[in-house]
């Protein structure tokens, strides 16, 4: 599990050390740096997948495209280098990268520190996953990042056809959620972690996804069918058990937005890391609260979850899950990112007790309802 992330001269952060837990909530104003935290992890994971062997961090990749070196270097510092550090159970790694050309779409590895000790980067030593090969293959940090999945807030909307990738090794729903239906088709008979299984429903992925979708949208159902002669599947949905299955664009938009999240949570295996942006998109308040509960249940099952959210309903779902003893309060991290012009972005960490109460409520932290109510009164 990832325990901490350290960013130096990366985007809006001159220097940031941020603790992570089994469930981490990133909240705050737009432009405060929440997405940058996630992007740092995605850049490392993307590089491991796209360039297993090599000495550079890919900035412009198929999942995350941030532009060139100048776009990711902190604008307030004059440095031509940046550092990304990750701590997992029993290991801390810090990668330093140096830019020779600010226009480049990747940045070259300059130094590696493991537990504070600099590792020599000899020219003749093979580098795998941005580590000397003898260290890479047994690294808990590398292993966690290689098992990382990211679902962006810009998820695939209703589509007639969805891609059907090859079955071997399929473990991700795609950063837009576009492969969720294909994953469900190939892995529908996989057993779901018993901690996440709804009672009286077969414990397989397909049946549990259906059951959890009905938890959010009572009466809804889904069907995934392959298309002959094409590497694609069709997803058909219905919002009422008395109606026929319909094309996704003819049912509530929230169903297609939630579907890849449900598939990703239930398909994840112990030790996986899930990054999910704005799980509340297009969901009504009760469903937003329920997704907060499900995210907490997933974290309690052994899957690490990091979410970015603007929803107090999602937060309240997490608080309720803690109060209901579904997730220990010690396993939740809440970070509030405020915008402070002229200052380095420095999020405030908020702790939660066993009854779901927060130890502080800083200005701007889900307080807009109170401001509006005071005006209305």
TrEMBL record:
Protein name: ATPase
Domain (DUF3696): residue spans on this chain: 328-376
Domain ATPase AAA-type core: residue ranges: 23-316
GO MF annotation list: ATP binding; ATP hydrolysis activity
